[in-house]
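Hey, can you fold this one?
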Amino acid sequence: MGKEAKTSEELFQIQGKPSASQALPLALQHVVAMIVGCVTPAIIVAGAAGLSPRDSVILIQAALVMSALTTFIQLYPLGKGKIRIGSGLPVIMGISFAYVPTMQAIAGSFDVATILGAQIVGGVIAVLVGIFIKQIRKFFPPLITGTVVFAIGLSLYPTAINYMAGGTSSSSYGSWQNWLVAFITLIIVTALNHYGKGIWKLASILIGIIVGYAVSMCFGMVSFASVADAAWFQLPSPLHFGVTFEPSACVALGVLFAINSIQAIGDFSATTTGGLDRMPTDEELNGGIVAYGISNVVCALFGGLPTATYSQNVGIVSSTKVVAKRVFGMAAGILLIAGLIPKFSSILTTIPYCVLGGATVSVFASIAMTGVKLITTAPMDYRNTTIVGLSIALGMGITQANAALSSFPAWVTTVFGKSPVVVATITAIVLNLVLPKPKNEQQ
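Sure. Predicted structure:
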C-alpha cells in the first residue's frame, strides 16, 4: 500500500518515476487526445498536393515519427543553462493546424517540397525568436496573437465544409450520403464534448471518427486496397519529397513561424502554471522555442510538416496535474511506434473526407473561439476593434476575391492572396504599432 501511494505521488513530480501500469493509461490518454489532430493536417496537405496513396502514407508516417521525436527533445533538453535545446517541460508536440491554410495554398501552387523548404526557413526564424524572445515579445500582445488565431480558425472553415460534402475532387461531392455521415460524426463529437466525462470527453473526436467510419463503410465509401500494399515496418525516408526554396512561400510560412513561436509561450506558461504552480523560467522559454525551430528544420528534412505544442494536452496537464516526464515519454514512444508501421498510417488514409470534415469542423470552430478569447483579454475600445476588424476584413476579403491580385506578380498572390492569415497578421502588427493608444495605456 505504501509503495503504491509513493508511486502515485511520482506522477505529480516532473522527475517522478511512476510504475508502467500507472503511467501507460495516462500516456494513452495524451495520445488519444492529439493523434487525430496530428495526422489530419498531413491528410489535408496530401489531398491539396495531389499525392499518390503511397506518398500520402509517407507524409502521415513522417508526421507521427517527427511529432514523437520533437516531443522527446522538449522533454529531455540537449545542453544546459542558457545554451540548451528543449524546454524540459511536460508538453506534447504535434503537426499544427495553424499552418494548414498556408500549406494548402503552397501545395496548390507548387508542391510539398516547397512547403518543406519554407519550413526550414521558418524554423530558422523560430530559433532567432527564441534567442531574442524578450525583445520581440512586445510586438505580439494577446490582441495580435488572438487576431491571428481567429483568422486561422475562419480560414479553415471552407476546408471542413468541403470535406463534409465529400471533398471537391470526389465524384460524389455534395451527395446526401456524405452529409449524413458528416453530421452523424459531428453529432457524436459534440454530444461527447458536452455530456461525456473522462476518456469519453477527451477522446470525443476519435470516437466520432470511429462511428462515422463505421457508418461510411455501410455506404461503401471505404477501400482497403492501399492498406494491403503497405509494409508492416518502414523507417522514415529522408528528403523523399525533396526541398525547394520559393521566396514567396518562405515569407508566407516564415510569418506564421514567428507568430507561433510567441504563441508557444502561452502553452509553456499554461503547462507550468497548471501543473507546476509557477511561471516558466527564461531558460525554459528560450530552450523550448529554440528547440521548436531546430526540430522543424529536422522535420522538414524527413518529410514532417510543421509541429507545435498541443493545447489540448496542456489542458490535460492542467486538469490532472500529472507532470511526470515518464508519462509523456511513453506517449511519444507510442507515436513513434505508430509512425514506424506504414499499415497503421495507410489505414488512416482510408478515412473518408466526410468523416474528417464532421470531426474537424468543431476543432476549427474552437480554434476561432480561442482567438476570440485572446482578443477579448484586451479592452474592446475603438482602437482595438479597428485593429481586429480591419485585419480580418483585409485577410479574409483579399483571399476570397480570387482575381483581386491578378495584375500583380505571382509572388504577391502566393504571399498575400492565398491565405488570409499572412495579411491579417501583418495588418494587425502594423496597426498596433501606428494607431495611438488611449492616454491611460501610454507609457
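Strands lie at 78-80, 83-85, 93-95, 307-309. Let me know if you want another pass with a different chain boundary.
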